[in-house]
Design a protein that fits this description.
Layout lengths: L6 H6 L3 E10 L5 E10 L7 H10 L3 H16 L4 E4 L2 H4 L18 E6 L10 H10 L3 E7 L7 H6 L3 E4 L1 H4 L7 H15 L3 E4 L5 H9 L4 E2 L19
Parallel strand pairs: 2-3, 3-4, 4-5, 5-6, 6-7, 7-8
Antiparallel strand pairs: 1-2, 1-8
Length: 237
């Protein structure tokens, strides 16, 4: 599992970094923004989830998150930036401080809150999100549709954006029941004032079905792989 590996040592050695993945506006093919994804050169970290689990065990989530945000703000260069923030950081006051890297970002900012981590476990999280909203930060509900989805969470969180998980997108085709579900979810989110992003698009067939379902934004390997620049590889035909 790698839990004996020290997060602080990895940070000091420069082994933790971010890649950017483009979020694409499907009507125009333009890049809407970039999601900053945690990466590591340390073999002990097998995934971003395991990286943050290790940091949580070691009391280093704040230091890890801060460094990732610092790099992301530099890499995104004032563009719309999507940031994954560990729920425990939303429970702490440091995120709202004037010295946190997000205070230095000159472009639009979106904080992603995973659907799988209800904020009820973190007493200060909702107030932190409200204070961030007062600064113009948008909130995205991430991974919606991964496993059991609580539709009431959309009304509770009132996100500006909802990211549909790859589980809902994988294998979708035109005129299928799966595509009708995507249409219904898109309509639901619109009724709640949220814009939908389809995650994990890997084929042209999936992309065409998502476009036909009326979903305006998307990301995935077919549109652009995570990289240092976050370049998109797709243009509308």
């Amino acid at each position: 599992m790698g839990f004996d590996f020290r997060t602080d040592a990895a940070l000091a050695a420069g082994q933790i970094y971010v890649d950017l993945q483009p979020v694409v506006e499907l009507a125009s093919g333009r890049i809407f923004g970039y999601e900053a994804l945690a990466r590591s050169r340390a073999e002990a970290y097998t995934s971003p989830i395991q990286m943050f689990a290790t940091a949580h065990e070691q009391g280093a989530v704040g230091r890890l998150g801060r460094e990732l945000r610092r790099q992301a703000v530099v890499a995104a260069r004032g563009a719309t930036l999507f940031l994954n923030v560990h729920p425990s950081e939303l429970d702490a006051p440091e995120l709202l401080g004037s010295t946190d890297p997000i205070a230095l970002h000159t472009g639009p900012l979106v904080i992603e809150v995973p659907e799988s981590s209800p904020l009820i476990r973190y007493r200060n999280a909702h107030s932190t999100l409200e204070r961030l909203r007062e600064r113009g930060v948008q909130i995205a509900l991430d991974d919606f549709g991964a496993g059991y989805s609580n539709f009431g969470y959309i009304a509770q969180l009132a996100p500006d954006l909802v990211k549909l998980d790859r589980e809902l997108i994988a294998g979708v085709t035109m005129h299928s029941r799966q595509q009708k579900l995507l249409q219904a979810l898109n309509a639901l989110c619109i009724s709640q004032g949220a814009t939908v992003i389809a995650e994990g698009i890997e084929t042209r067939e999936e992309l065409m079905a998502v476009i036909a379902a009326g979903i305006p934004l998307a990301q995935g390997f077919y549109l652009g792989r995570p990289s240092a620049t976050g370049a998109s590889t797709w243009t509308p035909s």
